[in-house]
Design goal:
alpha/beta, seven-stranded parallel sheet, three-stranded mixed sheet, globular, binds NADPH dihydro-nicotinamide-adenine-dinucleotide phosphate
């Protein structure tokens, strides 16, 4: 059968397209820049792409732009959304494409009766940040929602973009009786298929590229291949529903640096934290729902190793 993937060129979406082709699906993937070889060559070179992959140009901000993408599809995977932190215009750069893009994709789905299920790539960002102090004994689960006011107050624009987009998506699918499942991963690591650098792998590249300090921040981490399994299982398992957090575990950047030091003793790694405050605590994230779907979790050390090996292979650093 035929499925659609939005944002096909991206880190996660490239793996998703690869995996869907491997499983025999016909795939229609949306891209912003169909004439940019850096955004398309790696997709066109995938096994099965010649016969079963079609790239279609779309615009997240344009209503109806996704009509031709989802036309004839049984499944729609919506991954396209800006993922970066540095912006002078959060409304235009992050919030509009995330929110309007999601509603435009779902608007096209609402007009397309062939679509049986939508899988939304949301984020742990839409779950964990409501002002409750995150610390060792706290277990975040899918009942949590990040708080838009808290995000605005703390200028967490990417987190806000994912929160309002997922929230609007659930309201829209309820009203239109669309079957949707969301996958909520934390920072995704693993090998890159695309030739360009994405934000979550850039975080590791920064640490191994001669940075003097590591950030005083604790992130959740997960392997890209496990995140892809979650997307496919969410689509193919009839009883899948609601949100699925995908977090192997959280780690402070000091620990990430320690793991890098174990794996690569000759690397020059940052020795100091970027500030003198106590380290941001680790916290727990429930794996219960993800495990019930049948996903496995690659240990963080292996995800870091795969990321570094891929960054080396692609010549992002010497
Ligand atoms: P990438 O930056 O590699 O992919 C982002 C995708 O969104 C690309 O296809 C990109 O298109 C598209 N996109 C971004 N901004 C726009 C825009 N303004 N208009 C149209 N398309 C746009 O990152 P990831 O693969 O990591 O992210 C994919 C999804 O996964 C996002 O929804 C992200 O929020 C989510 N996610 C990612 C996590 C991570 O750690 N990587 C963790 C949790 C969730 P183009 O290639 O043309 O730039």
């Amino acid at each position: 059968s035929t499925v659609a993937v939005t944002g096909g060129s991206g880190f996660i979406a490239s793996w998703l397209v690869k995996s869907l082709l491997q499983r025999g699906y016909n795939v229609k993937a949306s891209v912003r820049y169909p004439n940019d070889p850096k955004k398309t060559n790696h997709l066109l070179a995938l096994d099965g792409a010649k016969e079963r992959l079609k790239l279609i140009k779309t615009d997240l901000l344009e209503e109806g732009s996704f009509d031709s993408l989802v036309d004839g599809c049984e499944g729609v995977f919506h991954t396209a959304s800006p993922f970066f932190f540095d912006t002078k215009d959060p409304q235009a750069d992050l919030l509009d494409p995330a929110l309007k893009g999601t509603l435009n994709v779902l608007g096209s789905v609402a007009k397309t009766p062939s679509v049986k299920r939508v899988v939304l790539t949301s984020s742990e960002a839409a779950v964990s940040f409501n002002g409750t102090p995150l610390k060792e004994d706290v277990v975040v689960d899918e009942s949590w929602w990040s708080d838009p006011d808290y995000c605005r107050k703390n200028q967490m624009w990417y987190v806000l973009s994912k929160t309002i987009a997922e929230d609007a998506a659930w309201k829209f699918v309820k009203e239109k009786a669309i079957d949707m499942v969301s996958i909520n991963p934390a920072a995704v690591l693993g090998p890159l298929l695309q030739p360009t650098l994405n934000t979550s792998c850039a975080n590791i590249l920064n640490l191994i590229s001669g940075a003097e300090t590591f950030p005083n921040a604790t992130y959740g981490f997960v392997n890209v291949k496990d995140v892809i399994d979650a997307h496919i299982l969410a689509y193919e398992t009839p009883s899948a529903n609601g949100r699925y957090l995908m977090v192997e575990r959280t780690a402070h950047h000091s620990e990430v640096v320690n793991i890098l030091r174990e794996l690569y003793p000759t690397f020059k790694l940052p020795e100091k934290c970027s500030d003198d405050k106590p380290f941001a605590p680790t916290y727990q994230v429930s794996k219960e729902r993800a495990k019930s779907l049948g996903v496995k979790f690659t240990p963080l050390k292996e995800s870091i190793r795969e990321t570094v090996e891929s960054l080396k292979e692609k010549n992002f650093f010497k």
